[in-house]
């Protein structure tokens, strides 16, 4: 008896650092002097412990699996472990597939369906995700997130009117698909105005039709020149054309300029919802040299509104072309650094009502679109009489919400088909 | 006719005003919490009851705490903070003759192992010794044999003073506490260790630590179900089946490869942040049915999925848990995904609104210093709701109801 207890003691001591192991030893020692059956079980237990010690693992589960495993029913259960402590006053519950057995226990346990002791681990026959339920869960998540957005981000979301000037060239698919994906992720209504240089083409139409958002595809007859300067000028004209469409159709929402090679963050679309009339965001300028020379370690230039200490618009951070003097690209497929303009269009957003005719509460500091002459528009600030009324967005310009990038291929290259 | 019209108009105006007030509401929209005891979360207990705190020698409280400061941070710390709260609370009275309730500050859950788990082996003797002290030095115990006294026993199975359920049931509630009101974390219907009239409280969770891990509320909740913890207790129950009555193991086996269930045994540093990005947080039973996960889920706005048959949740008469959490029977665990995805989205949004109610979150916490509506006040509210005491609790002088020598022999040794 003593030897067995010592064996059990040593076995239990193998458990790392758990003091709860002391308890079973207690109860089994108590039970030893009950009856021959108890003694028999104890001896069997000790024997199996010895065997386990020799083998190095508890073989009881295997034994019982082979001896007692029954046919698999709709509720497959893993079956019980072996050695019930006969001294416990509550019996281990046999969780069979049909009958819930009532325990023979203390009087105090009567009337409860919760049983103390070992239970089976219920595993259903196909413990893998069901695709319909996964879809339902995603719908639930989407509903929850929509509610969160309504409560914490913006109360009355307005339509986003994205204006993109584009033209057919090698990297058009690459850049435009980026914009397509960004707009597909926007959680608000989107109207996408695509203005194409050289007239409407099927290639462009094919790309933008994949977006799933409402698109207005306009063509401008002039072909895109092959110098950056010419391109900037034509793009300005194309954007004005789009603004005129907004005015004609009286589209309601917030106009933002999504150039096809820019990278937009989703927070941009949340942030512009708070525009009242005319807002400005900070753009990060990714001006790279096309690998023509070794890059010097420089901070990334940022273009956007600058605020003073009291969070009011005090001026503008513009792009300084000085470090790139003489090194910048002139033709579109030059392998030199492409420079942005002083203030890019993409950094401005405006309330579409600013463009409408006959709107009563339009602010007096905005110019009517018809009075704007095409040729000298460099940035949308020309639409305002008083540029100090611009609202700085993105924690007063401290957050960079989009990245300006211009990458174009050589004129004679082709985008891989398929 | 005239008067009736006026009255009708008044009622309509009032209704319009109330609906306006609710509509303009606080930011974000929340819903009022009404339990079976009514809208009582915001009740103020001051003036409704008086509590007398016994002055016990410091070996029952301060010295124990000095020996191990970890008692202030573990989930059983409610007993210590309750004592500190009562010492400086306006409900405390220094005159025992006018007291409605008597409190005995004895820290029974502060004898910790090197791992930090409390050993309950000396607790019955400690409690017994404390009661012997108060019954011999003050007349109030013998007056009612403890029926107007309350004790905080936050251990696994309350006043049964054992961590193993079978042992705890064998012991039953300590004989001397059978007439007193017990404030405990353990709650399970039809269980020996939950007596009629006990007040269930949440386990202690550190309020400052949780506050410091809050993330902006607009962060979208993208995790469907979240759980971190053990599924098998390999040290104490290697084959599974004892721990959590097999429920946690069932969760693991059924959902370990389900992408909707973010469950694992890791201890990430972003645990609190992750809970705030989850829609549902599982709160299954462990060795005992209660868990601090419930508190964390409520504070972080994650809907608690409670998998513990017949559990009694904290302040169950004041908080309508059925409307706030999701209850899943242990036998239904294999169908957990079906159950959770078939809840209509409107119900889920309503539960989130109820959880967003600040008085709900406050009621689950034990902040220092105490704040209105927190768990301390809910306990006092619960005690106040039990007043006035029934005349039958007062015994005739010399009359004894409790058997002071009942229980295991080891309990009778002096402490």
Automatic annotation (TrEMBL), chain A:
A Pfam family the protein falls into: Glyco_transf_43
Keyword Membrane present in the record's keywords: the answer is yes
- Keyword Transmembrane helix attributed: yes
Which Gene Ontology MF annotations are present?
A: galactosylgalactosylxylosylprotein 3-beta-glucuronosyltransferase activity; xylosyltransferase activity
Gene Ontology annotations for the cellular component aspect, listed alphabetically: Golgi membrane
Q: What is its EC number?
A: 2.4.-.-
**Alphabetical list of InterPro entries matching this protein:** Glyco_trans_43, Nucleotide-diphossugar_trans
Q: Which UniProt keywords apply?
A: Cell wall biogenesis/degradation, Glycoprotein, Glycosyltransferase, Golgi apparatus, Membrane, Signal-anchor, Transferase, Transmembrane, Transmembrane helix
Q: What's the protein name?
A: Glycosyltransferases
TrEMBL record, chain B:
Which GO MF terms does the UniProt record name? Answer: 1,4-beta-D-xylan synthase activity; glucuronoxylan glucuronosyltransferase activity
Query: Where is it predominantly found?
Result: Golgi
Gene Ontology cellular-component terms listed = Golgi membrane
Q: How does it sit in the membrane?
A: Single-pass type II membrane protein
Keyword terms, alphabetized? Glycosyltransferase, Golgi apparatus, Signal, Signal-anchor, Transferase, Transmembrane
Pfam families attached to this UniProt entry: Exostosin_GT47 (PF03016)
Q: Which GO terms describe its biological process?
A: glucuronoxylan biosynthetic process; plant-type secondary cell wall biogenesis
Leader sequence range is: 1-20
> In this protein, which residues make up the domain named Exostosin GT47?
48-343
Q: What is the annotated localization of this protein?
A: Golgi apparatus membrane
Assigned protein family: Belongs to the glycosyltransferase 47 family.
Supply the PANTHER family for this chain.
BETA-1,4-XYLOSYLTRANSFERASE IRX10L-RELATED, EXOSTOSIN HEPARAN SULFATE GLYCOSYLTRANSFERASE -RELATED
Q: What is this protein called?
A: Exostosin GT47 domain-containing protein
């Amino acid at each position: 008896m003593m030897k067995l207890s010592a064996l059990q003691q040593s076995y239990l001591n193998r458990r790392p650092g758990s003091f709860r192991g002391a308890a079973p030893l207690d109860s089994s020692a108590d039970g030893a002097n009950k009856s021959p059956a108890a003694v028999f079980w104890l001896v069997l237990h000790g024997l199996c412990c010895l065997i386990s010690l020799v083998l190095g693992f508890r073989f009881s589960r295997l034994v019982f699996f082979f001896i007692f495993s029954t046919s698999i029913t709709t509720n497959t259960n893993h079956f019980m472990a072996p050695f019930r402590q006969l001294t416990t006053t509550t019996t281990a519950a046999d969780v069979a597939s049909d009958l819930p057995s009532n325990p023979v226990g203390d009087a105090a346990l009567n009337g409860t369906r919760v049983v103390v002791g070992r239970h089976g681990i219920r595993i259903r026959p196909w413990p893998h995700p069901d695709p319909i339920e996964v879809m339902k869960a995603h719908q639930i998540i989407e509903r929850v997130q929509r509610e969160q957005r309504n409560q914490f981000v913006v109360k009355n979301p307005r339509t986003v009117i994205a204006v993109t000037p584009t033209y057919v060239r090698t990297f058009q698919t690459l850049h435009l698909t980026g914009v397509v994906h960004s707009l597909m992720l926007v959680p608000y209504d989107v109207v996408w105005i695509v203005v194409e240089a050289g007239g409407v083409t099927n290639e462009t139409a094919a790309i933008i039709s994949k977006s799933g958002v409402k698109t207005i595809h306009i063509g401008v007859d002039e072909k895109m020149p092959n110098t950056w300067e010419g391109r900037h000028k034509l793009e300005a004209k194309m954007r004005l054309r789009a603004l005129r469409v907004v005015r004609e159709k009286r589209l309601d929402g917030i106009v933002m300029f999504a150039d096809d090679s820019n990278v937009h963050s989703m927070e941009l679309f949340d942030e512009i919802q708070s525009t009242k009339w005319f807002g400005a965001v900070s753009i990060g300028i990714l001006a790279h040299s096309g690998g023509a020379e070794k890059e010097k370690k420089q901070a990334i230039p940022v273009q956007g509104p600058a605020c003073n200490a009291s969070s009011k618009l005090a001026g503008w951070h513009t792009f300084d072309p000085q470090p790139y003097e003489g090194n910048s690209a002139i033709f579109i497929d030059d392998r030199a650094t492409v420079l942005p303009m002083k203030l890019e269009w993409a950094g401005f957003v405006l309330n579409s009502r600013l463009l409408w005719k006959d709107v009563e509460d339009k602010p007096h500091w905005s110019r009517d679109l018809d009075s704007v002459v095409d040729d000298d528009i460099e940035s949308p600030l020309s639409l305002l009489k008083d540029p100090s009324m611009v609202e700085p967005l993105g924690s007063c310009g401290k957050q960079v919400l989009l990245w300006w990038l211009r990458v174009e291929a050589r004129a004679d290259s082709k985008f891989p088909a398929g | 006719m005239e008067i009736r019209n006026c009255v009708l108009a008044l009622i309509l105006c009032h209704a319009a005003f109330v609906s306006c007030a609710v509509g303009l509401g606080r930011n974000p929209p929340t819903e009022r919490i009404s339990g079976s005891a009514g809208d009582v979360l915001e009740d103020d207990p001051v003036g409704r009851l008086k509590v007398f705190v016994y002055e016990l020698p410091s070996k029952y409280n301060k010295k124990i705490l000095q020996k191990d400061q970890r008692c202030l941070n573990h989930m059983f710390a409610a007993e210590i903070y309750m004592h500190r709260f009562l010492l400086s609370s306006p409900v405390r009275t220094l005159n025992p003759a006018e007291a409605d309730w008597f409190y005995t500050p004895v820290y029974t859950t502060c004898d910790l192992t090197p791992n930090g788990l409390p050993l309950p082996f000396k607790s019955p003797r400690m409690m017994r010794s404390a009661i012997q002290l108060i019954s011999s030095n003050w007349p109030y115990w013998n007056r009612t044999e403890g029926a107007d006294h309350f004790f905080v026993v936050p251990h696994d199975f309350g006043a049964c003073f054992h961590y193993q359920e079978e042992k705890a049931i064998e012991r039953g509630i300590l004989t001397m506490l059978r007439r007193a009101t017990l404030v405990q974390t353990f709650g399970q219907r039809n269980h020996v260790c939950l007596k009629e009239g006990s007040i269930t409280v949440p386990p202690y969770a550190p309020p400052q630590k949780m506050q410091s891990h809050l993330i902006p509320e607009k962060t979208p909740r993208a995790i469907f179900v979240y759980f971190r913890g053990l599924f098998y207790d390999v040290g104490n129950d290697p084959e599974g089946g004892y721990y959590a009555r097999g429920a946690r193991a069932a969760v693991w086996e059924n959902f370990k490869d389900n992408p909707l269930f973010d469950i694992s045994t890791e201890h990430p540093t972003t645990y609190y942040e992750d809970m705030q990005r989850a829609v549902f947080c599982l709160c299954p039973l462990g060795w005992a049915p209660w868990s601090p996960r419930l508190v964390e889920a409520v504070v972080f706005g994650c809907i608690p999925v409670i998998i513990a048959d017949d559990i009694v949740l904290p302040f169950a008469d004041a908080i309508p848990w059925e409307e706030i959490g999701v209850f899943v029977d242990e036998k239904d665990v294999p169908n957990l995904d079906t159950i959770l995805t078939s809840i209509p989205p409107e119900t889920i949004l309503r539960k989130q609104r109820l959880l967003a109610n600040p008085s709900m979150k406050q009621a689950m916490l034990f902040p220092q210093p105490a704040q209105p509506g927190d768990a301390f006040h809910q306990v006092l509210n619960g005690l106040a709701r039990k007043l006035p005491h029934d005349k039958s609790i007062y015994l005739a002088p010399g009359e004894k109801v409790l058997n002071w020598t009942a229980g295991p022999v080891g309990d009778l040794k002096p402490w």
